Amino acid sequence: MPVLVITGTGTEIGKTVTTAAVAAAALAAGRSVAVLKAAQTGVGPDERGDADEVARLAGPVTTGELARFPEPLAPGTAARRAGMAPVHPHEVAERAAKLATEHDLVLVEGAGGLLVRFDAAGGTLADAAKLLGAPVLVVAQAGLGTLNVTELTARELRRRDLELAGVVIGSWPATPDLATRCNVADLPEVAAAPLLGALPAGAGALPPTEFRTAAPTWLSPRLDGTWDAEAFRVREAP
C-alpha cells in the first residue's frame, strides 16, 4: 500500500487528525512517510496548513501541498474566485507517484468529501485515486446522520472500481449516545468494508509526544496499529 488516499464524508470530521494518526503509526512501524495535501483552502500564504498540522502531530514526515487558496470553499470554487490556477487530478497523481518512489507510504489527503470539485472540468479526489490505482480510506462521523453519507461514499467508490480500504471514525466521544454506539456495528455494514479505527474526541489537542504514542492504539493492524475492532464493538454495544 505505497499510496493511501484519505477522504471524508464531509468537512470538520477529523480527516487531518486521522491522517496524522496513520502517519504516526506508520512511522512507529519504521516506515518513511510523505503527506500530500491535494488542495488547501481557507488558509493564507504564511499560515499553517493541514500538512503542517500532520507533521506537528505525527513527527518527521515529508509534506507537500499542490496549491492553497484563501477562501474556505471547495477547491475549484476557491481557485476561480481567487483568479488562480486550479489543481487537476493528474497533478495530484503525478506528485503522489513521485513521492512514492522515495517513501514507503504516501498519504494523499483530500479537501472535504470524495466528490468535491478541484477544477472546472469536475475533477475530483476520486479521479486522482483512479489514476494512482490507490485504495481510499474514508473518515466518517460517529453519530446520527453518518450512515447515509458513508454508504453513498462507499457506493461511489465501487461504481468507479476503486478499492475502499475501510472506515475510520474521526472523533469518538467520551460519552457516546445510542445512535453513535449503534453505528459501530452499522458503519462497516453500510460501507461493506471494515472499521479500521476510532480516534478519541480531542485527539488533535494532545501534546505531539502523547499523540504519537497513542496513535497506533486507535488504528487497526492494517494501518500499522493495534486497535481491535471486535473488542471495540463489544465494549460499545448498546
In total, the number of strands is: 9
Q: Spans with pLDDT under 50 lasting ≥5 residues?
A: none
- Kindly name the structural category: alpha/beta
User: What profile does the largest beta sheet have?
Assistant: 7 strands, parallel
Distance between the termini: 35 Å
Share in β-strands: 15-25%
Q: Can you walk through the features of this model?
A:
- The protein has 238 residues and is α/β, with parallel strands linked by helices.
- 39% of the residues lie in helices and 20% in strands.
- It has 9 helices and 9 strands.
- It has helices spanning 15-28, 50-58, 75-82, 89-100, 125-132, 146-159, 178-191, 208-214, 229-236; strands at residues 3-8, 33-37, 40-41, 62-65, 68-69, 105-113, 136-140, 164-172, 195-200.
- Strands 4-2-6-1-7-8-9 form a 7-stranded parallel sheet, sandwiched between helices. Strands 3-5 form a two-stranded parallel sheet.
- Helix 6 links the parallel strand 7 (136-140) and strand 8.
- Helix 1 (15-28) packs parallel to helix 2, helix 4 crosses helix 5 and helix 6 (146-159) runs parallel beside helix 7 (178-191).
- The radius of gyration is 17 Å and the shape is globular.
- The mean pLDDT is 96.
